[in-house]
Design brief:
Distance between the termini: 51 Å
Number of helices: 5
CATH class: Alpha Beta
Order of helices and strands: HHEEEEHEEEHH
CATH superfamily: Nucleoside Triphosphate Pyrophosphohydrolase
CATH topology: Nucleoside Triphosphate Pyrophosphohydrolase
Strand content: 35-45%
Amino acid sequence: MAKFFAQYAASGTVAAKSKMQDKRIIEVVGAIIKDGDRYLVGQRAAHKTQGGLWEFMGGKIEPGETPEQALARECREELDLEIENERIVESVVHEYPEKTIRLTLISCTPKPGSVPRAIEHQSIRWVTSEAMRGMDFAPADKELIQRLFA
């Protein structure tokens, strides 16, 4: 048995398995903000990672927050927008070269009288699901668009 384990360890499999188990997944939320048949999307600022790509607005879930709480906070910070009717729709784990994220999309609507404005994005836009499929989205968002709006 010891000989088997020594061969197994020498093959690098133990190290590879250990690395995968230690890899931290960053939990993030994204908002599917719906108004009729249109959805609000944002274009990432040029100076940020994946600058210029479109995304569902959102961000990291802070310690002690539920996904819904994180989304409400992120919408206030990024859009000056109050939301309601939050419902988790879908999630995906996506590995970028610099990090691995679990993006959880939450469907919501703007509270009456709350109007979004671009605070952290270079542009925001209301688009149909058809228009979304032709836009250049961040890879994790694109994967979810293909699942949800294909």
